[in-house]
From TrEMBL:
Gene3D superfamilies assigned to the protein according to its UniProt record, in alphabetical order: NAD(P)-binding Rossmann-like Domain
Family: Belongs to the short-chain dehydrogenases/reductases (SDR) family.
A family per Pfam: adh_short_C2
InterPro entries in UniProt: NAD(P)-bd_dom_sf, SDR_fam
Name this polypeptide is given: Uncharacterized protein
Amino acid sequence: MTETTLFRKKLEGKLAIVTGGASGIGEATAHLFAKHGARMVVIADIQEELGHQVAKSIGLNHSTYIRCDVTDEEQVKAMVEWTVKNYGQLDIMFSNAGIFSRSDQTVLNLDLLALDHLFAINVRGMAACVKHAARVMVEGHARGSIVCTASVAANQGSTGYTDYFMSKHAVLGLVRSASKQLGEHGIRVNCVSPSAVATPLTCSILGMDSEQVEKAYEPHASLKGVVPKVGHVADAVLFLASDDSGFVNGHNLVVDGGWVD
């Protein structure tokens, strides 16, 4: 058998939304969803030019871009409803939009305005996406899959970046609660927790190129000889979104190469 013959499309006919889909983990996942047969991947992001480029690169018959600022619940609600109105269903929500701390904050110097801004995206935005995706799935009797992007930061404390670590703990709490509440409707809610990967956002904040970021975080992985890439995270999201994880609910899938402090 050839490699092409063996390839099995895991999302055949599914409709997926990917927030933060214009770059980084979201972009890689959007491409992977399309590769695995999703009939439409909706790219939701505030980066309009990049979002249109990603949709075009996937193919406009299988992907489209819509501007959505997840800090505005009405925009999230409208985006989800627009998707269902135009495509008739919603099977997968990958709630991925998020940011990192712009400053290394400790408890003693915590800037609460900066914390509010970060929480508006990482926590309130995540909750809004889960809420409105779940509502249309329940109404449409869809046995859907909701996947959120958490982080290795959700499972540990830190000597800095307090607001970011707090926000990712909140994401894990959201997933664990939503999975219990939505399970009775046949809706699965899980999250993926990557370690640092060299996304454009990470590189920009750290002031490093991708090679420098990878080198900086290499000592934190007990698994040697493998460089963490966005594709590793996208593969994990695909697993959680597809029927391969049909009996997995409320799970935090850690993709960190055996992270060690």
